[in-house]
């Protein structure tokens, strides 16, 4: 499932390439025909990511809410200039090779729930497949959905201090492991399995310590780390979580996800710090990775 940095990059792509022009919306698959009819011909006025969800607002305040889930993805084509990298694997948000201005938009491939297309020779196109949620909302309903989400550092409607305080409030006095709290989108929006494992390792926190057992300083440090990692992810398109490494190791991390993380996806392999085999177990149905020594 794409984590928060990916959704922010997609929101930026929509803001850069689809805003302030009439959008032609259709549902080649047919499952979203009624929804597409409500936004076709309208201008995109706002593109906002909140955690793993995206909210596109059109001229009459109609809101398109999209949550990709595990299998959803956007494919882009045309004269795109926004920050979306090439990555066409299932479950990943990607961009197709640019199509020349002298060519027509390609025919839909597979089960395209929604196609958004800009007019003119320098057309841009976005195809949505397999989302967990794709729905039309009025402004009040959209605000209600957003209010149920935890703070997102890059879209919080308040000060940075208020966002940090909101995060701390949603963790304090909870008798739930911090590893589960970080994955709870009502606690903090945008963190997924990769960032969860890496943040806890970077903080040398036992993933099974509960929210009420954490000091205020530890919670504050987690938030600061998340803000920094999310910004890196949005800027680079990659979940780069290792610091204090050589230039060669950093280049390897950028080039290949196998070399990108401290513990995520490394079950049974030696910890990069102490050499102990990295542990893995299911927590709330998701794989949790950690080092029993470094995070004792």
TrEMBL record:
GO molecular function: class I DNA-(apurinic or apyrimidinic site) endonuclease activity; damaged DNA binding; oxidized pyrimidine nucleobase lesion DNA N-glycosylase activity; zinc ion binding
Residue ranges constituting the FPG-type domain according to the UniProt record: 262-296
GO BP term, example: base-excision repair
Annotated keywords: DNA damage, DNA repair, DNA-binding, Glycosidase, Hydrolase, Lyase, Metal-binding, Multifunctional enzyme, Zinc, Zinc-finger
Entry-linked SUPFAM superfamilies: Glucocorticoid receptor-like (DNA-binding domain), N-terminal domain of MutM-like DNA repair proteins, S13-like H2TH domain
Pfam families membership: Fapy_DNA_glyco, H2TH
Enzyme class label: lyase
Domain of life according to the entry: Bacteria
EC numbers for this chain: 4.2.99.18
Keyword Oxidoreductase included in the entry's annotation: no
PANTHER family: ENDONUCLEASE 8, ENDONUCLEASE 8 1
Similarity comment: Belongs to the FPG family.
Name used for this protein in its record: DNA-(apurinic or apyrimidinic site) lyase
Biological source species: Nakamurella antarctica
Source organism phylogeny: Bacteria, Bacillati, Actinomycetota, Actinomycetes, Nakamurellales
């Amino acid at each position: 499932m794409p984590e928060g940095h990916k959704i922010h990059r997609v929101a930026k792509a929509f803001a850069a390439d689809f805003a302030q022009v009439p959008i032609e919306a259709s549902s080649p698959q047919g499952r979203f025909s009624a929804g597409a009819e409500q936004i076709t011909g309208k201008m995109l006025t706002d593109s906002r990511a909140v955690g793993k969800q995206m909210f596109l607002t059109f001229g009459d305040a109609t809101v398109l809410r999209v949550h990709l889930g595990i299998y959803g993805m956007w494919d882009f084509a045309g004269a795109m200039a926004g920050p979306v990298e090439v990555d066409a694997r299932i479950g990943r948000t990607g961009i197709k090779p640019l199509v020349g201005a002298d060519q027509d938009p390609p025919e839909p491939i597979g089960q395209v729930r929604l196609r958004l297309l800009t007019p003119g020779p320098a057309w841009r196109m976005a195809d949505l497949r397999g989302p967990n949620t794709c729905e039309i909302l009025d402004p009040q309903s959209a605000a209600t959905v957003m209010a149920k989400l935890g703070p997102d550092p890059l879209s919080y409607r308040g000060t940075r201090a208020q966002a940090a305080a909101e995060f701390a409030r949603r963790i304090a006095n909870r008798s739930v492991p911090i590893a589960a709290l970080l994955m709870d989108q009502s606690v903090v929006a945008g963190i997924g399995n990769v960032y969860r494992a890496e943040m806890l390792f970077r903080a040398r926190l036992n993933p099974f310590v509960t929210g009420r057992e954490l000091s205020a300083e530890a919670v504050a440090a987690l938030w600061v780390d998340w803000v920094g990692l999310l910004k890196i992810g949005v800027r680079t398109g990659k979940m780069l979580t290792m610091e204090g490494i050589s230039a060669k190791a950093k280049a390897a991390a950028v080039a290949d996800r196998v070399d990108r993380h401290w513990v995520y996806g490394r079950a049974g392999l030696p910890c990069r710090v102490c050499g102990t085999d990295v542990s893995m177990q299911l927590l709330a149905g998701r794989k949790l990775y950690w080092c029993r020594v470094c995070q004792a």
